Amino acid sequence: MELYTYYRSTSSYRLRIALELKGLDYRSIPVNLVGDGGEQLKPAYRTLNPQGRVPALRVENNQVLIQSSAIIEYLEECYPQVPLLPKDPLKRARQRGVAALIGCDIHPLHNVSVLNRLRQMELSEAEVDNWIRHWIGLGFDAVEALIGDHDFCFGTPGLADVYLLPQAYAARRFAIDLNHYPRIARVERLALEHLAFRRAHPDAQADKPA
Description:
By secondary structure, the protein is an alpha+beta fold. It has two domains: about 1-80, Glutaredoxin, CATH 3.40.30; about 90-195, Glutathione S-transferase Yfyf (Class Pi), Chain A, domain 2 (Up-down Bundle), CATH 1.20.1050.10. Helix content is about 50%, strand content about 5%. The chain has a four-stranded mixed sheet, covered by helices on one side. The longest helix is centred in the middle third of the chain and has 23 residues, at about 125-145. The relative contact order is 0.15.
């Protein structure tokens, strides 16, 4: 498998975690989102992903999959030996609920394209920062209440953790104090001691600037 990725892309990070938790071999192909106008917007990459975003995953028969949530579902269906979801339907729904809260209601609101649009509307950098902190904080208030006092989000590393760790990394990038969220901070601490999460971390990626 070939993963088109950017080291600090939240959605790329979550897909790397899923691949590492499942113990799957893949080759990372960096896509520079910031240099020279952004490689993701150039024709060579648009032929792979017409949306011009990362991640994308090339799988068997040279097929390319897009959107991290769809790719993770594909991995869960094709490589169930190390599951990201429990068998119990209610527990599965709780994992999916936290993942969707992060993937649908937090992350998109601080995506680069959204922030660039806010700047085009002549918001100041302080106003953009307030926007980011507002939406991450609102979402984290809900996540903190939902995950309980388990190891990881729901006992063992799963789908909710795959989504939460990259979002915690983004929160720290935007100077959000995770001490206000002790359950989230606990999950982050446990994950950063886990080999799969460490291998997927932005600091461990070859394309991270020196």
